Amino acid sequence: MTYAEFAETQDKSALRPLARAIYFWRKTFNIFEMELRKIRHDPFNLLTRAIQPLLWMLIFGQVLAGARGIPTGGFSYIEFMAPGILAQSVLFVSIFYGLALIWERDLGIIHKFLASPAPRTALVLGKGLGAGIRGCSQATIVLLTMWLMGVNVDWNILKLLAVFATVLLGSVVFATLSLIIAIWMKERERFMGVGQVLTMPLFFASNAIYPISMMPDWLQRISMFNPLTYMVDALRALILVGAESSYGLGFDLGLLAVVGVILIAIAAKIYPSFIT
Q1: Which of 4, 23, 146, 150 is the most buried (most CB within 10 A)?
Q2: Residue 207 CB: number of other CB atoms within 10 A?
Q3: Which residues are registered as beta bridge partners of 181?
């Protein structure tokens, strides 16, 4: 082999990882684009999903705003609760995302995906990012509601971008968890039952509507293993003027990222079993 042939071989070897990365993100974007088309064909669904967080803020928040004894760190209860309600809406939108996967399996769409050479991780991540767009629409509505209610929101552009990045990351985590449940359950009725069982413990075993210090010791320990706890902590530090993260913003986002990677790997591994 001549030196020129050897150099050409080395160049091709160096380009292979880059080519694989480009291929992976292209396939991820294809799935993501498909999820966007679903939203574009049914935008009314986004508005109906926005009703629940608005009711929590306008009714539940107003009722408890006059309650005493809830340590909110110097913030009004509405200010303290609003980031938690945003996280809750992301959780509720994402945790039932697997229902669409069951519907796609029944229509034979999943079979076509699995017959393609697209990486399984790209199929899972693309769907998770699609859930993230729905979560970002919830974030926009909640932030506007907070502004109308007089909440002292930090409108720094970098922090707002970080808010949407946190929402996107949290959506991927809970949507991927939902996909794993859907692959495991395989039936709509069983999936809905498990999804409903999970949402309330995840929500109430977090710092969304009350501080963790108010919880009994056993529930405080459980909350430390709840991804929603760290999502709320990050959102509260980013949205409210003067708020600080209890665990460190980098730790919150890093933990969500690690959990997301683990769940995506699990979902990609068991994805083919969904059609059997």
Answers
A1: 146
A2: 25
A3: none
Tokens of 107: 């229509």
Residue among 254, 236, 249 nearest 85 (CA): 236
Burial of residue 34 (number of CB atoms within 10 Å: 0-12, 13-18, 19+): middle
Strand partners, 240: 153
Q: Which two tokens stand for residue 86?
A: 């945003």
Residue with the two structure tokens 């003067």: 242
DSSP readout, 90-131? HHHHHHTTHHHHHHHHHHTHHHHHHHSSS-HHHHHHHHHHHH
Q: Measured on CA atoms in the order 212, 214, 219, 221, is the torsion positive or negative?
A: positive
- pLDDT tens string 158-178: 999 999 999 999 999 999 999
Which of 44-59 are b and which e, b meaning 16 or more Cβ less than 10 Å from the residue's Cβ?
eebeebbeebeebbee
Q: Which amino acid is at 17?
A: P
Report which residue type is found at 93: V
Domain boundaries, the chain: 16-275
